[in-house]
Amino acid sequence: MTYETLDYTVRDGILTLTLNRPDKLNSFTVTMADELIAAYDRASADDEVGAIVVTGAGRAFCAGMDLSSEGNVFGLDESQQPTLQDLEERFEDPEIVDGVRDTGGQVSLAVYRCTKPVIAAINGAAVGIGATMTLPMDVRLASEDARIGFVFGRLGIVPEAASTWFLPRIVGISRALEWVYSADVLSAQEALDGGLLRSVVPADQLLDTAYALARKFVDGHSPVATALMRQMMYRNSAAPHPVEAHRVDSLAMFYTSIADGKEGVRAFLEKRPAEFTGRASALPPFAPWQADD
Fold first, then answer.
1. Burial of 184 (C-beta count, 10 Å sphere; 0-12/13-18/19+)
2. Which of 192, 126, 195, 185 lies closest to 151 in space, CA to CA?
3. Using one digit for the tens of pLDDT, what is the confidence trace for 26-70?
């Protein structure tokens, strides 16, 4: 599969997904949205991929939406008058998908349903959708050159990409509101201090740091257990009562204990590295989250 706006490279079990419009500072387009959705779904089905590192080509990560597009720059159909009922009852209707549903949000949902750990390696400017697309990712690293901004208020629009769900969970609602109200562009250090980033490193160490972290997620780990952990953490942490987590935990423990869990126990007792055979493309049958994607 070829892409116009991305580079998809798998090496030693790590997918490097590079936003690849360096002459446009990797600005976001509808084509990029479609390709990102396809790439995340492809990675979930690809058992050669153990983890994903997302970065940008050139000096930017993603400078936001490409505002030079003709017509509605967000790719929306201005002839429609959609209602919340339309978004509930016609969610998968192509007219709604293509003309009403936020393209950034569709990318965020693709990251959310991905079965592989996702690490953002923010190498430069990440503003607007360039910032919000990183929120469903599991860990965010940045170079000292990075600048991050939730600048929607300056354009007269609102945060998108389901960021009003993700951002308060990461940094707390008060800080999230301050950042979106002010629309300030944050330095990497400010984003680190605010809890958005795991770490800030020199630019020439960014990808090596991301790959080293990805290796810790992949080497010696069951792909099935990792995929379930990712989905369980996001879904269960947003459930209204811990009993919902208990139900999913119970099924996940049951199915992993009769599969890769047996090899994990044997390897522990025999004091040797485990050789897991489970595949993230073939998760246990209970899959409680499929209906809400």
1. middle
2. 185
3. 999 999 999 999 999 999 999 999 999 999 999 999 999 998 877
